[in-house]
Write a structure and sequence with these properties.
Blueprint: H1 3-22, E1 27-28, E2 38-43, H2 50-65, E3 71-75, H3 77-86, H4 90-98, E4 106-111, E5 114-117, E6 131-141, E7 150-159, H5 162-177, H6 180-186, E8 190-191, E9 202-203, H7 205-224, E10 228-229, E11 235-237, H8 238-244, H9 261-269, H10 274-283, E12 289-291, H11 296-304, E13 316-324, E14 340-348
Parallel strand pairs: 10-13
Antiparallel strand pairs: 1-2, 2-7, 3-4, 4-5, 6-7, 8-9, 11-12, 13-14
Helix pairs in contact: 1-2, 3-4
Amino acid sequence: MTPLQELRHSCAHVLATAVLRLFPEAKLDIGPPTDTGFYYDIDLDHTLTAEDLARIEEEMRKIAAEKQPFVRREVTRDEAVEIIRRIGQERYKLGRLADIPEGETISFYQNCEFIDLCAGTHVADTGKTGAFKLLNVAGAYHRGDERNKQLQRIYGTAFPSEEELKAYLDQVEQARQRDHRKLGRDLKLFHIDDSVGQGLILWTPNGAIIRQELQNFISEELTRQGYKQVFTPHIGRLGLYKTSGHFPYYSESQYPPIIERAELAELAAEGCTCAQLANKLSEGDIDGYLLKPMNCPHHIKIFASQPHSYRDLPVRLAEFGTVYRWEQSGELNGMTRVRGFTQDDAHLF
């Protein structure tokens, strides 16, 4: 680890120490450093508030003032299991222990009463954790899998000095003022409405002007480079995407297939279960339609629709094609992570 990563990693342990002092029933998962700070994932029935974050941060300052040494201890796998069970953190820590390959060193770091499964490294003691600040709490699925329980992720940041921390927080505030979601609302550029669907953008007249000007600029550039404009539908036969490999290999990030009413009614009458239906779709026993996740198969079909001499090559096709992806609700973010978006897409044959 770099010295800054080491400092932030140590702050994550100080955070966990503070959380357990205030909420001893909390179950801990992981707390790594990040490019902008650190976090710790916590399983706690109580929903943390801004007031709780202030209390936790104050407790962290007390822990820092105590200058608790970070002590490394290497153990066997059986000893690790015993320690985890003794401190009552088996819910997630046993799984993290199982992730460590056989033969690799297993270590814990302890500061005062807090001990954690950790490869390290850390600063010498809690008094050397620099200037830190807790930022917010967000939901995070255990191991990033939506099928698992959603934990509470406490985010923070830390720097060697108060001056560096202040400069960073000023940058964050400036970025917040320039956040496209705030500007989009203030300038009346776009709208996201729950009744339409999260991740589906409604362009207002003001926003449409910007979008049209961008498309005009890109179209002129594509024309200069020899590309020809095409248009393709928003859906396609499921078999097309099986041929391209988009289905079923990326089905988790796509909208479910659309099956013809008559065939769906026939399957229902036969008592076909949802699992059987999914198997039939993936195995190609039944067909349907899919909201377009990519433009590539459509452009390939346009190219293949007529013979080409080598003198015709290269063939350049371009489209402002709208595609659809099933992003998880926790991943949606303004216009940067959406479920329907238009690509300035192009293919060269």
